[in-house]
């Protein structure tokens, strides 16, 4: 029998410092993260929820007009938690800008921030969003202002790309072409500078015909200014990666009881295991349990007998038969997942009759997570 995931035990444990919710798109991951954070705050934790998904649903459900790149405390009528709840949404560009200001010094920082090449890569370089998510998580953890951080991740398999982000971004910035951009500045002696500069001139002439001379000059200036930050850049990512593997971190995989979502969930579980990441369990979201002990066959048989005399009862019985068929299908899909991953604790969260749009809805999701 599959072990039940005890959500309250997870969030009540003072050694649990970070909970990362991951899963494919459209499975209710953002709502799950917000509901989990709200429940933790109501049970006494000083909690902050960080969303990397650019959707505005989280802010609306928490009664906030919008979320920014710094945590805002949730304070609305009817919400009086024993602890505190704060919420924020990652702004990739602002996080990168803040990191530059912190580590480059005032003059160099302004030069970097004004550089057109920086303005391009700070929003479009592969791995930048995931790296900045790690940076922001590291910042939140370093302050010790909160004893629980709940992280909502991007949809689909990119949810785990932040595990690869430091290497991907470092490799990109440390690649041969990018390194050539800094060649003249890094040559040590006059003779070497002359050789490198000559080679660089040939390289630059060729490349400038493709990407334009001004962009090449901007890229070279950026790399020369950025180079002194590069070691700290990698080191901070390494420390956050260690934080994600620490005993105080738990990963929750969120999935709907659908074939595609559960295949993605299997991928997440296997990837987390391969990375030695601490997996807490699977949240099977929006399930449809049967509320009456009546089989689909019996319901359809009764509906057939009542069709001519009780049309309303007939319609109810037919709806019940459809619900039973759906519930049985979901059970088969979840059973297949648990056979493949027998050691993964699981909790089913029944679907609400309507979308979550306020604190009350998040609270009910939290209750269903823990029930």
Automatic annotation (TrEMBL):
* Record protein name field: Arsenate (2+)-transporting ATPase
Task: Show the PANTHER family listed in the entry.
Answer: ANION TRANSPORTER ATPASE-RELATED (PTHR10803:SF26), ARSENICAL PUMP-DRIVING ATPASE ARSENITE-TRANSLOCATING ATPASE (PTHR10803)
* InterPro entries to which the protein is assigned, alphabetical: ArsA/GET3_ATPase-like, ATPase_ArsA/GET3, P-loop_NTPase
The scientific name of the source species is Amycolatopsis methanolica 239
* Upper taxonomic lineage: Bacteria, Bacillati, Actinomycetota, Actinomycetes, Pseudonocardiales
Instruction: Identify the residues that the record assigns to the ArsA/GET3 Anion-transporting ATPase-like domain, covering every copy.
Output: 16-288
The record's section on SUPFAM superfamilies has: P-loop containing nucleoside triphosphate hydrolases
List the molecular function annotations (GO) for this entry: ATP binding; ATP hydrolysis activity
């Amino acid at each position: 029998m599959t072990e039940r995931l005890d959500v309250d035990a997870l969030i009540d444990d003072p050694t649990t410092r970070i909970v990362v919710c991951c899963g494919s798109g459209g499975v209710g991951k953002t709502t799950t993260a917000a509901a989990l954070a709200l429940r933790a705050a109501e049970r006494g934790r000083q909690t902050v929820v960080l969303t990397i998904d650019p959707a505005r649903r989280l802010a609306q459900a928490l009664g906030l007009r919008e979320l920014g790149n710094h945590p805002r405390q949730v304070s609305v009528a009817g919400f009086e938690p024993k602890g505190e709840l704060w919420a924020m949404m990652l702004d990739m560009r602002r996080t990168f800008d803040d990191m530059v200001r912190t580590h480059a010094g005032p003059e160099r920082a302004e030069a970097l921030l004004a550089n057109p090449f920086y303005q391009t890569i700070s929003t479009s370089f592969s791995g930048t969003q995931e790296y900045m998510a790690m940076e922001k998580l590291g910042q939140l953890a370093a302050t010790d202002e909160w004893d629980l951080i709940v992280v909502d991740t991007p949809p689909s398999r990119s949810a785990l790309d932040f595990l690869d982000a430091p290497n991907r971004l470092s490799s990109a910035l440390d690649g041969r072409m990018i390194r050539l951009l800094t060649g003249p500045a890094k040559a040590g002696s006059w003779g070497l500078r002359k050789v490198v500069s000559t080679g660089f001139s040939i390289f630059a002439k060729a490349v400038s015909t493709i990407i334009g001379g001004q962009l090449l000059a901007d890229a070279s200036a950026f790399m020369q200014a950025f180079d002194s930050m590069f070691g700290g850049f990698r080191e901070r990512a390494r420390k956050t990666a260690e934080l994600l593997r620490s005993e105080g971190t738990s990963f929750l995989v969120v999935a709907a009881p659908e074939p595609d979502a559960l295949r993605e969930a299997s991928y997440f579980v296997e990837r987390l295991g391969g990375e030695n990441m601490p997996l807490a369990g699977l949240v099977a979201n929006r399930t449809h349990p049967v509320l009456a002990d009546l089989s689909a066959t019996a319901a359809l048989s009764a509906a057939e007998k009542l069709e001519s005399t009780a049309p309303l009862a007939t319609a109810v019985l037919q709806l019940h038969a459809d619900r039973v068929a759906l519930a049985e299908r979901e059970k088969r899909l979840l059973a297949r997942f648990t056979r493949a991953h027998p050691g993964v604790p699981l909790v089913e969260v029944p679907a609400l009759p309507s979308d979550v749009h306020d604190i009350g809805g998040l609270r009910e999701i939290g209750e269903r997570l823990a029930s």
